[in-house]
Amino acid sequence: METQKIISVELTDSDLSEQIKVVTKDCHVRAENTELMLAYQRGDITMEQYKLLLCSLHEIYQALEEALDSNSNHSCVAPIYFPLELARLESLEKDLEHFYGHNWREKIVVPAATKRYVHRLRQIGKDNPEYLVAHAYTRYLGDLSGGTVLGRITQKSLGLKSGEGLLFFSFPGVSSPNRFKQLYRSRMNSIELNHEDRKGVLDEAVRAFELNIQVFDDLQKMLSEMKSETKSDMPSKMERESTSEKLHMTGCTRHLTTHSKLAQGELHTHTHTHTHTIRTLKKPMTEFGSNLNNFSFPQERS
Ligand code: HEM
């Protein structure tokens, strides 16, 4: 579906795509080092973490995609408007239905930080559509980069069957994430921005990362609160693991010993990256119905 022929462009220091990468470098590292993302990199994400993450992502993408749709003709949005290739909302809804059932809308919970993020997206959708590129970049290019790897880790950690509750990570309209990222960067660079607006976009990108970091931190806080509440309610570990599906999943993931070669250094070398996972399972892998070939690994990183 990548209809545009990708022209190889030489990036210069003044290109928006380069500047945005430079100004967000430090907060990217901080985002990677949040407890939630570290759990991902260790390969020990839990079902509770993933479900809560999906709830927040749903709210965020709903607001982001509404803002992009309603400003799709704006000169700063039109070049980076790729709903067919990138839109995540529908996938998130299906994933949520998979985990929470048909009445998932009544069940989803989001922390205060997610509400702040959503508020900001709605506000700029109304008042500063030229800043939307910063938010679209932060989420979509992130999803097309580390996100692919996170999909595989989620599948492996939770022992999910191919595609089950994992549609968020899959981009059927993007055959090559790296080529698509190149196209996206060249489109970003074609946006005409005066000095002040450009500065505004760069500041907004840093803010977008900050908002994501706050969401991850708040999610983690919510999880520890949920855990301590559950602990005080539950009389014994045996009962806990046999009476609830939610807690059964925690029990399963607790038995996983996972070592991942997703060390930050490796991921940032721009070279071919493999994930190698050693597991100690109480059950054989097949019982978890694992199909590890569902997500394609980019062969090279741009
Ligand atoms: C486990 C956590 C993460 C890992 C391992 C990771 C890894 C990566 C990798 C390997 C790249 C490609 C780097 C390159 O092409 O130079 C990348 C790019 C990117 N990531 Fe992450 N990432 C993580 C979390 C995040 C988060 C939480 C966000 C934002 C919410 C994010 C946003 C981005 C963006 C926007 C890019 C594109 C950079 C560019 O090409 O300009 N990442 N990430």
TrEMBL record:
One of its GO terms (biological process) is heme catabolic process. Its main location: endoplasmic reticulum. Pfam families: Heme_oxygenase. Keywords: Endoplasmic reticulum, Heme, Iron, Metal-binding, Oxidoreductase. GO terms for cellular component: endoplasmic reticulum. One of its GO terms (molecular function) is metal ion binding. Its EC number is 1.14.14.18. Residues 227-248 are annotated as: Disordered. The keyword Endoplasmic reticulum applies. The keyword Cytoplasm does not apply. It is found in: Endoplasmic reticulum. InterPro entries: Haem_Oase (IPR002051), Haem_Oase-like (IPR016053), Haem_Oase-like_multi-hlx (IPR016084), Haem_oxygenase_CS (IPR018207). SUPFAM superfamilies: Heme oxygenase-like. It is an enzyme of class 1 (oxidoreductase). Belongs to the heme oxygenase family. This is heme oxygenase (biliverdin-producing). It comes from Esox lucius (Northern pike).
